[in-house]
Amino acid sequence: MSDEVTYVIGGSVEDMRDRFLTAVRRAEAGEAPQPERIVTFENWSAFLKTFSPARIALLEALTGGPAESINALAGSLRRNYRRVHDDVTALERAGLLTRRGRQVILAADGARAHLDLRPSQRATR
User: Fold this and answer.
1) In this structure, are strands 97-100 and 108-115 parallel, antiparallel, or unpaired?
2) pTM tops 0.90
3) If you ran DSSP here, which 8-state letter would residue 67 be given?
4) How many domains are contained in the chain?
5) DSSP assigned state of 29
6) Of 50, 49, 45, which Cα lies nearest the Cα of 5?
7) Which residues contact 71 (CB under 8 A, 6 or more apart)?
8) Is residue 41 part of a domain?
């Protein structure tokens, strides 16, 4: 597991560019790279689609250790296999889960979210 994933809700392309340029400047100055795992969601509803209560419960279930399979995870959660499979796939895309063979494993020790309340570029045009 790596340390942490940061989820940015809102923000802009300029924010991403600034993070990138800061990392480049640090590298050019000879500073050791500080890897960051940042996933940006366009808005709050996109974030909530990924982090539904069922998916949060799935993540909590994995804090005790990896699940031997999606089927085993579905059984422990008393949920339908297909829905758990879909949730695992979505959480894997979001950077929170990984699979090794059939095992389902947390990919990060923690996560934090930053909600940007500035109007989006589309809303201001």
Assistant:
1) unpaired
2) no
3) B
4) 1
5) T
6) 50
7) 81
8) yes
